Amino acid sequence: MFEIKHRDGMARMGEFSTPHGTVQTPNIMPVVNPNLKLISPRELRERFKSQVIITNSYVIYQSEYLRERALDKGLHSLLDYDGVVMTDSGTFQAHVYGELGIDPVEILDFQVDMGSDISTILDMFTEPTDSPSVISKKVDITVDRATQALKRHGDIPGHIALPVQGGILPKMREDCARRLSHLKGSFYPIGGVVPLLENYRYFNLVNVIAASKRGLGPAGPVHLFGAGHPMLYPLAVLLGCDLFDSSSYAKYAGRGDMMYPDGTRNVKDIEHLSCLCPACSDLTVEELRAMDGDERKKRIAEHNLWVSYNEIERIKQAIREESLWELVEMRARAHPYLLDALRALAKNRSTMEAYEPRGRSRAIFYTGKSTLDRPCIGRLKEWICNSYVPPVKGPTVIFNVKGGRKPYHRYLTRELDALLREHTVNLLVKTPMGPVPLEMDEVYPVAQSIFPEDMVDEDALNEYVDRGDVTDVLYWEGMETLDILEKSPGISFHEMKVRSVCEYQFCKGAGAVLTEGELKFAKNRKGSIKNVFLDDFHVLSMRHYDGLFSLKEEGARILHRNFRAPTLRVQVTEDSALFNRDGKNVFNGFVTHAWEHIRPGDEVLIVEGDDTLVAVARAFNGHLEMLYYDIGLAARTRTGITDQS
Q1: How does strand 21-25 pair with strand 11-18?
Q2: Which stretch of DSSP H or E encloses residue 396?
Q3: Are residues 452 and 590 in the same domain?
Q4: Annotated catalytic residue: which of 88, 123, 242, 546?
Q5: Is residue 570's pLDDT more than 70?
Q6: Which of 123, 437, 496, 507 minimizes the number of CB atoms within 10 Å of its CB?
Q7: Its pTM surpasses 0.85
Q8: Has residue 49 got a pLDDT over 70?
Q9: Is 88 in the active site?
Q10: What percent of the chain has pLDDT over 70?
Q11: Dihedrals phi, psi of 431, to nearest 5 degrees
């Protein structure tokens, strides 16, 4: 029921269906109290174009009038709202007021009976101060209630929300999420985080979300309970959250607080409104202050909603253009505790890496030290320091290109011509990301990044130089460096590029098999590789925007012959293979196996169950999502293969 349409790492734009329509994510769900309608549900639908709202079933259940009307006319009639409605169960009220005496089965049945599109089980709220033993008991109860709820209502048209609990203990969160994901539900809130939000414990919040996502895997949609402030939305979406409920728009308005993407300001302290939203565009701050109390409260609530929806739209655009990381890092400068969240992101880099593409069409913009903690940079640095095998046996020459000009080799043409004409050497260049093999200087994110001039990561360089297999290191000091080197013919720079990039992009050994024979190159006007031919067969084409290769049919055949399953493979059903051979795309529901190292954007081999090669494709999803989802695109087919010779 959930389909990913666009993505930026773990962040995703998607759609999920309900009995009352399709909801596009990321999105917010304004909280509606049926007793206190500051902004009516109809107004939310018509003016704010809201697709989904949330209300509390416990509040309705406690009122005899509301309860009878909801059961008689239905929830949507009660609220006068024809969009999607989610109901909470009373868990948060129990957290605030203590035991409420609600029966878990009865309150869930009530939500289903009144026609809620998304009904929530009565889970056990885990406090940040709870001991591990208490958390363990609450998690067990939550999972047991989720199990029983799906047995009782698993076939209803709507969704049953299964909240993830576990306090601030990552292992407990991950365990709870994994157990819930095994139940094969369709909607997963992350609960118990309001105390963290109220106390600005964003470091803990990131760890809680990341642990929950590790346990849930690609399951979705994921709803972050209680996150009603827009300054948190980019961070939470980056971590894979899809939906947010917002009561803050109304609560803050009652205090005269106006929400902005970078924080909150009270109307008493504002001298210049500086907002062009529909609620503010026809007002001065003096006119806003002079309004009647209820009128002012509603106008501020409207402002808060417009700002919240606008931030969601900004996030969607960032996902489209793959700039969400920059948005998160810039938003984090608005509050010191959000900088703590960036530190927590760095600690959870491995969780995010599984969803991170190897290449992007947009450059990285350096916004501070946290930029270097991004998964794409960490992945490349780790591979260079631990897995990179120099293409030749010989000394290593290290360059320092002044001014940060990229790609670096274009500014070293004279030096490279002199070096490679008569010497067998490996080439490195100092960069802000650490040492980079010069033949990989067009690979994302090396060339596709903007850093302060002459910034260099010396620590990473020293780590590489200290590797046991790196010997005879020389730092380029000008043409006199040639006098130190022994003369011996090496391989061409372009061959070095094909070998190293293929090793990084595909798998260990790929560079060797894709250069074993007579290599020829078609180049563009700047002298860079455009196409690669091996023994006169077109095997690779360079992707100009990220420095990686598109895999051609003959290149795919070579990789298929030389590497056993499951390496590089996406296995599909026989029915799917018939279409994929004709060039049709691969869809998740027909994927039976996928190599665990496949990341979004990777070049992949599409095979049948007997490992017959049927197509070459570019993955849209990573392996986890391909195997989890029943609908949606898995990979875009480049070439169908009918000839098995």
Answers
A1: antiparallel
A2: strand 396-399
A3: no
A4: 88
A5: yes
A6: 507
A7: yes
A8: yes
A9: yes
A10: 100
A11: -140, 170
